[in-house]
Amino acid sequence: DLYRKVFVFRKDPSDAYVLLRAKLHGPLQNFTVCLRSYTDLARPHSLFSYATKAQDNEILLFKPKPGEYRLYVGGKFVIFRVPEGRGDWEHVCASWESATGIAEFWFNGKPWPRKGLQRGYTVGAEAAILLGQEQDTFGGGFDVYNSFSGELADVHLWDAGLSPDKMRAAYQSLRLPPALLAWKSLSYEVKGDVVVKPRLRE
């Protein structure tokens, strides 16, 4: 249970990452991924990387520069432009549904204009799921200059799109529906220089 705790990625750049184990029951037609990050990086960095043997960017939450997030599904991406950080935690939730190809992006509890991506696609189930690195091959192929440095918390993955109420609940750290990956019952393995510490501030 990582409640009120964070992963601290201490080095910049870094070869460290956290490997997550999800209880996947099959391919995903829909998903929502949420997490909170705290960093002063201005260079590109990966937050959440879900790769299969067929597609290294099956699901990727990537921040190429301050004020911009990219959501990849099946190797294609859409861009969401957000206010540049003022040295604070940023909470993001990204959801996608195959039937419509609609990608939703929530930033600090507020929805951004929806975009279209990979309608009819299916996300593979045999996945390597990593925090802190971007996979260019299944479970590896890292570029340290895309590595994350800073603090990560409140990581979740669902095999469904969340309702607006639940998106806001994720931002407020309230009760959430059962997840494939849940921060309060996370199965993970630290690889390299990552430390679990209490959260310093809200």
Automatic annotation (TrEMBL):
UniProtKB keywords: Acute phase, Calcium, Disulfide bond, Metal-binding, Secreted, Signal
GO molecular function, one term: complement component C1q complex binding
Record-level GO cellular component terms: extracellular space
Cofactor(s) this protein requires: Ca(2+)
Occurrences of domain Pentraxin (PTX) (ranges): 3-202
UniProt cross-references to Pfam families, sorted A to Z: Pentaxin
InterPro entries xrefs: ConA-like_dom_sf, Pentaxin_CS, Pentraxin_domain, PTX_dom
Main location: secreted
Gene Ontology terms describing biological process: acute-phase response; innate immune response
Record flagged with keyword Chloroplast: no
Origin: domain of life: Eukaryota
Entry annotated with the keyword Secreted: yes
SS bond partners: 34-93
Compartments, record wording: Secreted
SUPFAM superfamilies: Concanavalin A-like lectins/glucanases
Record text on subunit structure and interactions: Homopentamer. Pentaxin (or pentraxin) have a discoid arrangement of 5 non-covalently bound subunits.
PANTHER family, per database record: C-REACTIVE PROTEIN, C-REACTIVE PROTEIN-RELATED
Family statement drawn from the similarity comment of this UniProt entry: Belongs to the pentraxin family.
Protein name, entry field: Pentraxin family member
Originating organism: Corythaeola cristata (Great blue turaco)
Protein encoded by which gene: Apcs
